[in-house]
Amino acid sequence: MRPTLPIRDYVLILSLLPALLIAALETYFVSHRFEAMDRELLERGQLISSQMAASAEYGVFSNNRDFLIGIASGAVNQNDVSAVSIANASGEVLAHAGRPEMAGTLGADNTIHEHFIIIVKPIIPAPIALDPLFEPTFSNMPIGKVRLTISRVRTNQLKNQLLTTSILVALTLFATSALLMYAFMRVISRPISALGNVVSAIGEGRLDSRFVDKDASITELEALSVGINSMADKLQQERATLQNRIEEATEALRLQKEAAELVGQTKSHLLALASHDLRQPMQALVFYLHQLGHRISEGEQVELLGKLENSVEALTQLLNSLMDISRLDAGVVEADVKVCAIDPLLERVRASFADKTAAKNIRFVIHPYKTSRRIVTDPMLLERILMNLASNAVRYTQHNGTILIACRQRTDHLRIEVRDNGPGIDANQMGEIFTEFFRGDQRAKTGGLGLGLSIVKKLCDLLGHNLVASSKINRGSIFSVEVTLAKDGEEFLLSAESNDADVQSGENQAFNQCKILLVDDDPAVLSSLQLLLESWGCDVSAHGSFQSLYTCLGSGEETQPTLVLSDYHLEQGKDGIELLGMVRKTFGGPKIPGIIITADISGELKKIASELKVVLAQKPIRPARLKSLLTYCLNERK
Question: Do 373 and 335 touch, CB atoms closer than 8 A?
């Protein structure tokens, strides 16, 4: 990238170039003038010394000192001549004039000093014609020498004067250039720099910046400044317009957000009410059908009851799926991630489908983890995931088929696989199986809304678990969920939903001498659940409200129960957690186990239940599942 310079530097360079050129030329000519002056001085000295050598020939030959002194004195009177000496062939000085220190024995060479020049000239006799008939005789042997000392003082003074003049001229040129540069800067450079500053300010967002120059005298700069100011005006107007639009859009977005939040709150409230009010009669219907099944023995009636139970089961699953997908879309489902065990969870899944797998003679196999390492997840949501996957496997696996749930460790993850040998899924449809209301060609024959796998995907995304599916037509399907393994030393949270105790189905187990304190504000659910518990041999004390139980506890009519089974949402803002706390406080301590049945299990409720060691069960709960939880709680109490 070529380096850039400010306009001031360019102006400086352009203004100094002529001065530098003239200074260089002046230096060149001055140096040549110095050389010429030295050369002229030396030539004049050579000329004087040659004239003296010719004039002194007779005086040296005749040894006439007075004559020689006269010649020397005449030469000293000339400019720049400091001293003159005349000597004979033997070197004896015959005459000297000028500076005394220059007298003495004459050397043979010329010498140039800083302040003077010594020129030594031999005296050679002229040829003499002794006989007219013959050529003149000539002897080139010198008969003496003339030494001339030329002073360089005057020449050096002239040089100094010339040098001083040259320097003054150069300084004058530089000063003139500086003045021209300053004037040029005022006329051109300063406005251009100011324009540059205005452009930079506009580029930084200060659109109120303008260029104002009252002394502008250059047409092009004036036109440029007008254009820049006009551009800044338009940009400022555009920004003001854009700012207004942004503010309007922000206000509209805020109103939409508030409306959406209001709709979300209303939707959440509606979901909570719908979830509770729709599940209540469904729960009572499940319990009544179970009781009816134990009282009907005729074949046709049993067949009709079986169809009715299948219809109720399908309706229950549809209701659960619709409520789950609505709650997930509304964002009201919260994950309560903790360290828990996986094997009891798998056993609960198998126990929940014991009746269905037995009816279709399906072999349901669990390969447990069988190690001390725990997993990090929300146990209730993970159980919901596996329940959905197992429900699909049971639904699509044909009679005498096999379902396998296996745990395989992969470094720091546990891979939980749910395998079946059902009809499988076409490869072209694998990318759509997790979308809502999607049912493949093979699966559409079995009914359902196609929400189960969509719920599984949403729950896995909520928990951050990787979900993988693979399938082959007529070979079956494999759905895998990868869960993070807990690190060594991480706390294992003991709760009813994550305990190492085996969960039994309790199919033929009686609950003799077990007193159940039952509370539900829905008369149908209360009546059906009381009949179900009594059919299992439980001693049930049923109450239709929180106030009814409170009154009985206050009067001492109630004795200590073995277990408390209550709905969560009760009348007048009361709840099952508060009710259980009241019972435990009345009978002295937290030893009394509790099962809270609710239609809507939130993260906060799961946290509270975990701290109080309370089992949460979601409505509608199947009788087999309820019996399994009762067995578990009573075993824990023992």
Answer: no
Find the mean pLDDT for residues 539-562: 90
Last residue of a domain, one of 501, 529, 550: 501
CATH number, domain with residue 383: 3.30.565.10
pLDDT at position 132 is 56
Residue span of the structural domain in which 510 resides: 504-638
The total number of residues written for the chain in this structure:
638
Q: Is 96 exposed, middle or buried (0-12, 13-18, 19+ CB in 10 A)?
A: buried
Last residue of a domain, one of 501, 521, 549: 501
What CA–CA distance (Å, rounded) separates 583 from 590? Answer: 9
Residue 348 contacts residue 481 (beta carbons within 8 Å): no
DSSP letter, residue 589: S
The closest alpha carbon to 76, from 109, 108, 104, 102, belongs to 102
Angle made by CA atoms 290, 303, 537, in degrees to the nearest 5:
25
Same domain as 458, residue 414: yes
At residue 216, the pLDDT reads: 58
Q: What is the pLDDT of residue 133?
A: 55
Name the 3-class secondary structure at 416.
strand
Q: HSE on the CB side for 303, CA within 13 Å?
A: 2
Residues 491 and 517 in one domain: no
pLDDT at residue 54 is higher than 80? yes
Question: Is 492 in the same domain as 538?
Answer: no
Q: Is residue 215 assigned to a domain? A: no
Percentage of residues of the chain with pLDDT beyond 90? 11
End-to-end C-alpha distance for the chain, whole angstroms: 85
What's the mean pLDDT in 419-428? 86
Q: Could you say which DSSP state residue 186 is in? A: I
- Which pLDDT belongs to residue 197? 82
